[in-house]
Design a protein that fits this description.
Elements: E1 6-13, E2 15-17, E3 25-27, H1 29-38, E4 47-50, E5 56-58, E6 61-69, E7 72-78, H2 82-89, E8 95-101, E9 115-122, E10 134-136, E11 144-150, H3 161-181, H4 190-199, E12 205-207, E13 213-215, H5 216-225, H6 260-276, H7 280-287
Parallel strand pairs: 4-9
Antiparallel strand pairs: 1-7, 2-3, 4-6, 5-10, 6-7, 8-9, 8-11, 12-13
Helix pairs in contact: 3-4, 6-7
Length: 290
């Protein structure tokens, strides 16, 4: 997690809005000031969540401070989960929502005032972060009011183009490592797959004939996850294969097997590499007849 508070994030502004409940509500700049002044990050901190949770959801950060500037309610957040911060920097979340306890809500920690219940990020699935404990929301939807708008002024979350590229590449590398571990991607193609995945737009959607819409990046990740295992890991004695008497059995985790076709390809490529004195990648191309 990030130790230093991040932000500011513009989470709301004064005006008349139609919340998700459908009933029009007016929030004045004075209301915003009261929300900021009564916010208690020690005893009643508001979590940063993904989507619109009604009962419970993991907290990916906590609101550390609220303040009003230029008629807008802004927040800094702390204890931010690293993967979530990376997703925000990559622009995967295009909108932010807030949920406010109504002044007469029985669950409101500051009765008589609007109070920030949570800040929600919208636009992408939650990052897979094991071990996060859910935050309990005991009250029902009638006790609070929710608004959503486009993200603006994400402050310290913002990064330079070079930083964004580096983050995209880092995330892509982690994903390709997983596909290699699962045996769905050959290590020889790792670098190219990382560069390609990092170049894909994470927000632009594409449509398919069945009406499904998805982003280019999500489609590529789904495509790789659906590939058959080209490398199956396990310990097997392949005998005297193409490499001759010096061959050694492959050692892989229990419960996995070796794909004979890929083993033969690997052996042929190694033999060509040794005989011709070329790189393994070039040997693979010769072995596959490219």
């Amino acid at each position: 997690m990030s130790a230093a508070p991040l932000g500011p994030i513009e989470i709301f502004r004064a005006g008349t809005f139609t919340p998700m409940s459908g009933k029009t509500a007016t929030i004045t700049e004075n209301d915003l000031r009261r929300i900021a002044e009564t916010y208690d990050p020690v005893n009643s901190p508001a979590p940063v969540v993904i989507g619109h949770p009604e009962t419970d959801a993991p907290a990916y950060a906590w609101v550390d401070r609220l303040y009003v500037e230029g008629g807008k309610l802004k927040a800094t957040v702390k204890e931010t989960v690293a993967q979530f911060a990376d997703f925000v920097k990559q622009g995967l979340y295009k909108r932010v929502s807030i949920s406010l306890f109504l002044p007469d809500s029985s669950a409101n920690p500051k009765p008589g005032e609007f109070y920030l219940k949570h800040v929600g990020f919208l636009g992408a699935a939650a990052p897979a972060v094991p071990g996060l404990k859910p935050v309990q929301f005991s009250n029902g939807a009638n006790d609070c009011i929710e608004f959503a708008h486009d993200i603006r002024g994400i402050g310290a979350f913002a990064s330079t183009d070079d930083e964004l590229k580096a983050l995209r590449k880092q995330v892509a590398e982690q994903e390709m490592e997983r596909f290699i571990t699962e045996g769905r991607l050959l290590p020889a193609f790792k670098a190219e797959a990382i560069d390609f995945a990092a170049s894909l737009d994470a927000s632009e959607t594409i449509s398919f004939a069945d009406g499904e819409n998805t982003t280019r990046r999500e489609w590529f990740m789904s495509f790789l996850s659906r590939q058959p295992k080209v490398i199956s890991f396990g310990r097997h004695d392949l005998g005297n294969g193409p490499l001759g008497e010096g061959s050694h059995p492959l050692t892989v985790p229990d419960g996995f097997t070796v794909d004979p076709r890929q083993s033969e390809l690997y052996a042929r490529a190694r033999q060509i590499e040794r005989e011709k004195g070329i790189s393994f990648a070039d040997a693979v191309e010769l072995a596959t007849g490219r």
